[in-house]
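quick one before i forget lol
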Amino acid sequence: MNIPFTIVPYSEAFKDAFRTLNEEWITKYFKMEEMDRITLHHPKEYILDKGGYIAVALLDRNPVGVCALIPCQYDGFDFELSKMGVSPKAQGKGVGKLLGQHIIEQAKQLGAKKIFLESNRKLAPALSLYKNLGFKEITKIASPYARSDIQMELTLTDS
């Protein structure tokens, strides 16, 4: 059974959903860090105003997933795939995959050549999703997150 999710660009109406969907997974597995607070409480200033993008997955007009594309500060990377959160009630239904594919398409439209992400090996379903989207593990960047123990990259092509 395919559930019809819609993916829309972020607007201020989704500010609380962006924060709570991310706080939900972060506090379940880790603890909130300073970079989380900055990003989640100020998405317009920290992500959108800097040329980034946020996607929101809706089910019956209710936000059930979010994912951000943040201009990347690291050399060789255009954007960071970040703050992907899916409501527990929507997990396992393909929302993360749809968000990931949407974010990658958005990065291509913005002219990106390479995307970076960081995660934690404890999040096996997320890592599996990233690998299925084409991300490969790398080791070369110092993370601002204490919880980050894996970093990945995706080289974008027009195919």
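fyi The chain has a mean pLDDT of 93.
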